């Protein structure tokens, strides 16, 4: 921390903020500063957009053959494999997650780059449209959108960056990325790997700084063609409003309040019961619940509730908290003092509204932003903690008696990102999965995703999709090219030609 890190990259140059402003990056384990980054502003943002604009309009990357673009993405994947331990440890310290979670994140980022490399490399080119005549050649081609503004959240800074950067580059775009000001370090590291892999200068730009200035400017900037934002609902609606003036493309992923529905028949044997409880813990408490798809709403069939909640609470109390790199630690801290205070306030509100505390509910003694994994029983839809996204290790428990009631509870949310159903009845599983209004539905599982499958939500969970072919499509424009091979007069309008007059 002897000098400010030059964490802004514009047009091939690493630099400090033009204002000279810096920000300390806080280790959430002990609340001490461990790094310094540049605190960019509006002018830094404008220069980054100008660099991306020039690189798109006149630079090499949009005109690079698809095979070469795919090869570069594969080189990035190889570099991520090489630096797995270093970047995984940095993600662990920056975001407070365990080292193993950090390593898994690096692996998932590698897989995203490989997937989009293969996707564009294996495409069949233009789509031929049958015009009904041999004299017409009609095709639809896909071209890059242009300059993309990418805004990522603090909970999965590296992973979310890859979900945007990999398809943006695969499609031939240039970009400016603004990582969360709380956890920017691994995104800076990823930009370094892109440059090492040979990405042309100006194609990738990064401005570290606050959302209220850098993010807001990107959203409104007239030279930005697309903005992709992952974060909270309030900020996401501001981004959409700002983007509307220039009618740029918008993709938003705004979180969820995700149901985990457990039918009694899913727990008919000791092993099945153990699996369902274990998965409910994983759904709610991985990364201290700071996951957009966290299964924070347990909706359990009434006859199973008491036994299920008792075992869930017992195991929750045994979860080991600590620094993510320490042996045996299962769960790290919340990312910031603000997030800790937010979680404490939600729990207090729930208890005031009649929830019954079964586990956790408090900050353990000692430094840092830790909060005990918390189970709140006897919850209902009138409670804020059930309706709103907490983004902390807080699990609410609701009950149902019929399949119809279970579906109604699971869908009774403004969000619609993800959900799960647990049952041994295959027909019921299919019925409930079809009825759930959520972008991802798991049956007898929770949390896995595939880079080949689209990710995104219904309702206030956002618009657009990431990953899969649809995720690539967000970064493209479709163009129809219609060629008449035998042009002749249309004679739509009256009037004689010179030949007729003769």
TrEMBL record:
InterPro entries attached to this UniProt entry: Ald_DH/histidinol_DH, Ald_DH_C, Ald_DH_CS_CYS, Ald_DH_CS_GLU, Ald_DH_N, Aldehyde_DH_dom
Keywords carried by this UniProt record: NAD, Oxidoreductase
Domain of life: Bacteria
Pathway this chain belongs to: Amine and polyamine biosynthesis; betaine biosynthesis via choline pathway; betaine from betaine aldehyde: step 1/1
Residue ranges of every copy of the Aldehyde dehydrogenase domain listed in the record: 17-481
UniProt-annotated catalytic positions: 253
Annotated family: Belongs to the aldehyde dehydrogenase family.
Protein name: Aldehyde dehydrogenase family protein
């Amino acid at each position: 921390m002897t000098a400010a890190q030059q964490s802004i990259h514009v047009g091939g140059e690493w630099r400090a903020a033009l204002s000279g402003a810096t920000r300390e990056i806080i280790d959430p384990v002990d609340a001490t500063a461990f790094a310094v980054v540049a605190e960019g502003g509006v002018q830094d943002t404008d220069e980054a957009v100008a660099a991306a604009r020039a690189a798109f309009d006149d630079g090499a990357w949009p005109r690079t053959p698809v095979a070469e673009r795919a090869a570069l993405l594969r080189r990035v994947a190889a570099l991520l494999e090489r630096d797995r331990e270093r970047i995984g440890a940095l993600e662990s310290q920056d975001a407070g997650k365990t080292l193993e979670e950090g390593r898994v994140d690096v692996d998932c980022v590698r897989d995203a780059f490989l997937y989009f490399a293969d996707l564009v490399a294996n495409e069949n080119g233009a789509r031929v449209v049958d015009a009904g005549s041999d004299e017409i050649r009609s095709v639809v081609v896909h071209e890059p959108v242009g300059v993309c503004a990418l805004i990522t959240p603090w909970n999965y800074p590296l992973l979310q960056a890859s979900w945007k950067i990999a398809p943006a580059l695969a499609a031939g775009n240039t970009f400016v990325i603004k990582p969360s000001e709380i956890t920017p370090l691994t995104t800076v590291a990823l930009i370094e790997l892109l440059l090492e892999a040979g990405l042309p200068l100006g194609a990738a730009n990064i401005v570290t700084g606050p959302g209220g200035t850098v993010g807001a400017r990107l959203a409104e900037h007239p030279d930005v063609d697309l903005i992709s934002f992952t974060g909270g609902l309030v900020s996401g609606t501001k981004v959409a409003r700002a983007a509307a003036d220039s009618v740029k493309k918008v993709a938003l992923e705004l979180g969820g309040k995700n149901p985990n529905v457990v039918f009694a028949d899913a727990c008919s044997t000791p092993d099945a019961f153990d699996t369902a409880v274990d998965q409910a813990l994983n759904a709610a408490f991985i990364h201290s619940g700071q996951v957009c798809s966290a299964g924070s709403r347990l909706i359990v069939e009434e006859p199973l509730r008491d036994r299920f909640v008792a075992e869930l609470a017992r195991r929750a109390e045994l979860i080991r908290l600590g620094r993510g790199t320490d042996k045996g630690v299962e769960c790290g801290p919340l990312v910031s003092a603000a997030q800790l205070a937010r979680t404490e306030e939600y729990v207090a509100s729930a208890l005031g509204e009649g929830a019954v505390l079964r586990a956790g509910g408090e900050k353990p003694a000692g430094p840092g932003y830790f909060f005990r994994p918390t189970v709140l029983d006897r919850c209902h839809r009138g409670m804020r903690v059930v309706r709103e996204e907490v983004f902390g290790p807080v699990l609410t428990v609701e009950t149902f008696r019929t399949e119809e009631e279970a579906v109604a509870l699971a869908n009774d949310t403004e969000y619609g990102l993800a959900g799960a159903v647990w049952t041994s009845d295959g027909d019921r599983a299919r019925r409930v999965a079809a009825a759930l209004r959520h972008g991802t539905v798991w049956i007898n599982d929770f949390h896995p995703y595939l880079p080949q499958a689209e990710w995104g939500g219904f309702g206030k969970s956002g618009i657009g999709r990431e990953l899969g072919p649809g995720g690539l499509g967000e970064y493209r424009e479709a163009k129809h090219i219609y060629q008449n091979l035998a042009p002749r007069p249309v004679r739509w309008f009256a009037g004689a030609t010179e030949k007729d007059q003769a």
